[in-house]
Amino acid sequence: MPLYELMCLAKPALARPLMVEMMKRVGKLVSEKGGVVTDIKSFGDQHLAYDIRRPYERYAKAHIWQMTVMTGPAALREVLTELRNNDNVLRYISIKRDSQLSLVPQSVLQKMLEEHDQSSSQMRG
Length: 125
Hints:
Alpha-Beta Plaits, 40% strand, ribonucleoprotein, Ribosomal_bS6
């Protein structure tokens, strides 16, 4: 299963229980389709580099959250449809990541590479 990162900008005036409910709904969609939520980060209300305009609305701030999920493409399409149809979502994006390297911490990955280099140099020598 591929690893995806979802980044979402929501309306800043959205109450915390509604924000949590939105994240739970996305996580539930992923888990119902056999996927796994590996990480959730909330960055809170942030000032935006430029205003996001909607009819009769203008937003200079947004509540930003990120969710990392391991799921299939069909479940991802459902999640993106859910975000597209939610009036509280200003913008969203999904990025496909390399699942093997993303789940390994950087320090562990560096140690594995050093061990590989040592073992390959011993084989040559």
